[in-house]
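CORE FACILITY INTAKE
Project code: CF-77B
Contact: R.S. (postdoc)
Sample description: multi-component assembly, three entities in total
Requested service: structural model of the whole complex
Turnaround: standard
Below are the sequence entries exactly as provided by the requester. Do not edit them.
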Amino acid sequence: MSEQSTRRQFIDRSCRILGFAAIGGTAGLLTHRASGDAVYQVDPFKCTACDLCRTSCVLSHSAVKAVNDFDKCGYCMLCPAYFDVTSRPDEKGIPAGKVCPQDALKRRVVGKVDEEDPNNNYYEYIIDETRCDGCGKCVKACKPPAGNGSLRLEIRYARCLECNECSIQIACPDRAIVRLSTPGMAPKEHVVESKNV
Amino acid sequence: MIVAALATSVLFAQYQKAPPDFGGSYSFPTPAHPEPRAYWIRMVDIGMLIGGMALAAWFILKRRSRNGVMMLSIGAVAYFGFYRKGCICPIGAIQNVTLSLVDSRYLMSYGVIAFFFLPLATALLFGRVFCGGVCPLGALQDLVVLRPRKVPEKLDQALSWLRYVYLGLAVLFAGWGLHLKFGSFQIQMGRRFLICEWDPFISIFRITGAFHMLVIGAIFILGGMFIGRPYCRWLCPYGGLLSILSRFSWKNVRITPDKELDCGLCADACPYGAIHDLRADRASCLACARCYEYCPRELKLHGGPSGSDSVVQVKWRNAMKNGRWQSIVRSWTGITAAIAVALASVWLISVYIHARYVTPRDKAVIDSLKKKATQDVEVQKVLQPETDRQHLVLAARRGQYNVGSLSLLIALAIFLAWYKWFRPDRGDWTGVPPWLLQHLEKIPDRSAKAVPVVKSKKVGKKHPVRRFRR
Amino acid sequence: MEPNDKETTQLSLTDRFRRSWFPPAAVVGALGAFVAAALRVRPAVKASARPAESAATPNPAAQAAGSAPPVQGLVRTYAQSGALGGATSAHPFRRSLAGVAVGPNDMIYALGDDEMRVFDSTGNPIRTWRVPEKAECFSVGPDQHVYVGAAGRVEIFEATGSHVGGFAAGEKNRPAGITAIKVFQKDILVADAAARIIRRYDANGKQLGIIGNKSKAGSFILPNKSLDIDIDTKGVIRATDTGRHQVTSWAIDGSPLGSFGKFGMSDPADFVGCCNPVNLALAPDGTIVTGEKMVARIKVYQADGKLLAVIGPEHFDPNCIHIYIAVDSKGRILAADPERREVKIFSLVAKAGTAERKTEEPEST
C-alpha cells in the first residue's frame, strides 16, 4: 500500500510540476507579446455607412452613433446630411425632405445671425444620441464631394460592452471595424484589424 | 485619443483649414468622446479574480462552509455577472489564447492572460475552486439548484465528452475557421468565437440579446433547477481543462477528514454526482461544499452546523411556528414570487411579439410619408410628429424591457432565497387552497434526509486519492 | 490508473462494453452529424451580408443629380480640344494638382507635385521650379511674376523661377487662409477664406483695403472653407459665395455691385448641393466660367447671370471638390481636375444663332 501511495504521489507531483511548467511557459510566451486591452472602433476611411452597424450590435440600441467633427464641418445652411437635397425645395429654396430617419441630427444657427434670410447663416449640427441608431445615412450623405466628410460613425464607449468578439466586426462587409490597443497603453505595431477571413 | 489618431489623414488635408470667423459669439463645442474603461479598473478585475479564488479556496478547504461559498457565488454573479456583463471570462479566453498562439499579430491583453492561466494554476493547487465560487456562469447555475435529480453515471460520463468536442470546435474556429472542400461541396467559414456567440447566460447578464439566445438561457436556468449545473458538467470547455488539471491538485475537497460514517448523506447531497464510493471525485467535483453542509461529522468536528440551512431552520422554527399570519406569509411569499416570475416572462414575451408586429407597420408608414415629403412640404409637417411618436414608442418599449427583465430577475432571486431559507416544512403550509396544497406537500423538508448507514468494504481508513473515474 | 483486479474479472462483457470508448464515440458521432447538418444552414445566413458599395460614387444625391440628361437649348457648345499633365501624357502629375493659370502670351502655368510647371500655349513644357509645400493657389502677373499662396504667406517668384520676395497675409494673430490670388495692375488680391474677405495688398505686403464686407448680407458664407476670385480688365471683382450659391461682384474699393445665382438641383442654371460654385474664372469676352462639385461640371454665364454653356460631368472625376479654371485670350477654357490630375482644354465649337463653326485645334502633350 505504501508503495502505491508513493508511486501515486510521485505521479501526482510530477504531473503537477509539468502542469505548472506548461502554464508558466505559455503564459510567459503570451505575456511577451501582450499589451494593454483591446477595444473596437470604426475606421472612417473604410466605412461605407451600409446600415449594418445598426442591426449587428448585441445591444438593441446600437453602440455605434454618428458624430460630427466640428473642425471639419462646413456649418452649411443646406447641409446635405440634414436635408435630402434631391427633394423639392419650398418657396424659400429649402428642401422639404430630411435625411435622418430618426430625426437625430439637430441644428441651431450660430455666429452673427440674419433673421430674415436663412441663407446668410452658419448652422451648428449636433447628433442626439438617444435618437441616433447608427444607420449612417447622414454619414453617407456628408462624404465628399457633396459634403466635407465631417460626419462619421463611431463606437461610443459609454455604451459599448467591449465584447470579446465584436458582432459588428463580423457583419461589416468593408472590414471597417478595427481592434486597437486601449489608449494610455503604448501601442504595439502588431494590430490585427479584422480577423475575419 | 484613438479616434483623433484615426480621423486625421492627408486625404482630408484640404479641410484642415483654419476655422472661419463666424462673427457674433461662437466657440467650438468640445465634442465628447467617451473613453473606454480605464486601465486601472481592468486591473481591479484581476484582483477580484485572485481574491475570489483565494476566498473560495479558504471557504472550501479550510473553513469548510457552504455559507461562505454561497455568499461568494452571489458576489460572483453580482460582480462578474451583472456588473462586468459576463465578459471577460476564462471560458472565452480559450479562444483568445488559441488565436494569439496561431497568429502572433493578434492583440492579447494581460487581463485575458491572467483570466485564462490563473484559474488553471489554482486548479493544480486547490482543485476547481474557480468553478465553486468565482465563475459567474457556474455561480448562476449553482444558485438556481432546487430539486436536483441524479443522472445515471454512464450517461454523465458520456455527456462529459461533449466538453472536449466543444473545446476542439472552439479552438478550431478561433484559430483557423472551417475551410473544407469535398469536390463540389465546400464550407468556408471564417474565424469565429463560438463560445462567445453561443454562451447561454450572456444574454441574462446583459439583460438583452437575440431572442433565441434568451430562450436558450431560460432553458438552461429552468433545467438547472432540476439537473445540477448542466453547462458546467457537460458543455464547458474550460471545465474540461480544469477537470484534467484538478486530478493532480495538491489539496482538494475531502469529506470528513478523520473518520467516515459511510452514511452516504454527502452522496445524496451532491447535486452533480461527483461523489463516488463516498469520496469526492476530483475531476468532477465543482466545490459547492454541499457535502459538508449535510455531513453529520461536521457538526461534531466544528462544534456547530456548517450549513446555514440548519441554523435558519432552528431559528425560524422556534420563532414562527405558532404564529398563523407568519405562517401564511411564509407560504405565500414563495408562491407570489413564482407567479411574479411567470407573469414577468409572459409580459416580456408579449412586448416582444407586439414589437415584431407593430414595428414593420410603423416603418411602412414612415417610409411612405417620407416618399411623399420629398415632393410636398405639407407632408413634411406631418412627418415630424410621426417621427417623434415612433421615437417615444421605441423609448417606451426599451423601458418596458428593462423594467420587465429587472422584475423577473428580482422575483427569481426572491423565489430562490425563499426556497432555500424561508419555505415551510411539510405540515406547516398555511392559507393555501387544497388543490395546491397536495402538490406543495410533495416538496421535501429542508432538513437532511435520514439514510440508513451503509458500511462499505472498499473504503479504508486513509483516504485514497481517486484521480480517474472507473 | 489503478486497476482493481477483482473488479475486472467480475465485470460481464456487456458491462465492459458499456464502460468502454463506444458510448462516447457514439455521442461524438451524433454531435458531428448535428454540426454538419447545422453547417448546411449557415452559408445561407452568411450570404445575406450586403455587397460593399463602390467607393467611387458614394453619394446618392450626387448620383441622382449627375445622371440628369444633357442640357438642351444652350447658346454655346464646347468640346475638349486638348489635355496636359494627365496620366497618359509625357509629364504626368503624380501626386497632386492644385491650380492652373494663364500668363502673358497665353503661357499655361500649372501647380502640382510641389512644383510650378510652365507650358507654352501649345502645351510644350518650358520650365519647372519647386514651390513651398502646402501651396494651394497662385496667380501670374503681367510681368510674368508668379504669386503663390502657401500657409498664410504669399511667395513671389520671377519668370525664371527664382524667389524674389514674399509677405504674410492676414492679421497678426490670424494668418490668412489663402485660397485664391489675383493680380490687378500693381495690386495683389488675396482671398482669405478664414476671415471670409478679400484683402488687397501692394507688392510689399502692405494691406491697402478689404473687399467683401460692405454688403447688406454680410461677408461671404464659405462652408467649404474656400473662396475663389477673379478680376477683369476694368477692375470688377467676381467672387464665389458658396454658402449662398451666388457669384458676387465688387468694385476694387469694396462696394458691392450685385450678384446672381441660387440653389437648385434640377435647373442647370442653378448651383447644386451645399456649397457651389467652388471656382470661377473670367473670360476676356466678359463671360464668367464657374466650376462646381458634387456634380462636377463647368458652366459659362453671361455677366447678368444667363447660362450660356454647360461642360458636363462626363469630363471630370465625380469626386472632385474643386475644378480650377483659367481662360486664355482666345477664350479656351483650361480646367484642372485634381482627382485625375489632368488639365483639360476646352474650345468653343458652336454658337447657336450663327453659322460660324470654329475649327478644332487638337493638341496634347
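Facility notes:
- Chain C is about 10% helix and 35% strand.
- Residues 58-92+261-353 of chain C form one domain.
Invoice: internal transfer
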